[in-house]
Amino acid sequence: MIADLDAGATASMTGGGYADGIRLIVDAYAAGDAEAAAAHYQQWLPLINYENRQGGLASCKALMKEGGVIRSDAVRHPLPPMHPATREGLLKVARRLAPLVLRWGR
Predict the structure, then answer these.
(1) What is the rounded distance in angstroms from the CA atom of residue 94 to the CA atom of residue 89?
(2) In angstroms, rounded to a whole number, what is the distance separating the alpha carbons of residues 29 and 33?
(3) Measuring CA to CA, how many Å separate 54 from each of 7, 12, 32, 36, 62?
(4) Over the stretch 36-54, which tens digit does the pLDDT of each residue have?
(5) What is the Cα–Cα distance from 100 to 102, expressed in whole angstroms?
(6) Which among 55, 53, 63 has a CA at the least distance from the CA of 97?
């Protein structure tokens, strides 16, 4: 993500489940504080990686369901449902960061 910002990107394309974490990175970068942006990126990187490598597009829905924002985390065909172990891994990583999505609908 930092490399994308360095190349001129003004935001990031994520699944939307933790915009509060992504905003910390982008805001620090936009303010010219590359060190803070890198520190925030390192903090949120485990969740970013989990979304990208294990959970895919279903990650955002799983986070929203856990936080009471939506009732169903079902995905449309052809995407397979998230495996329960993958979901638990995602939530374990997310809970360490306490993103807004996990408490938004509660």
Answers:
(1) 9
(2) 5
(3) 27, 19, 32, 27, 12
(4) 999 999 999 999 999 999 9
(5) 5
(6) 63
Rounded Cα distance, 101 and 59, in Å? 12
Q: What is the DSSP letter of 31?
A: T
Q: 10 Å Cβ neighbour count for 58?
A: 23
Helices assigned H by DSSP within 1-106 = 2-6, 19-30, 34-50, 58-66, 84-97
Give pTM, 2 decimals: 0.90
Question: What does the pLDDT read at residue 86?
Answer: 97
List the domain boundaries for the chain. 2-102
The amino acid at residue 27 is D
Q: How far apart are CA 95 and CA 80, in angstroms?
A: 24
Quickly tell me which residue has 């992504």 as its tokens: 22
Tokens found for residue 95: 């809970």
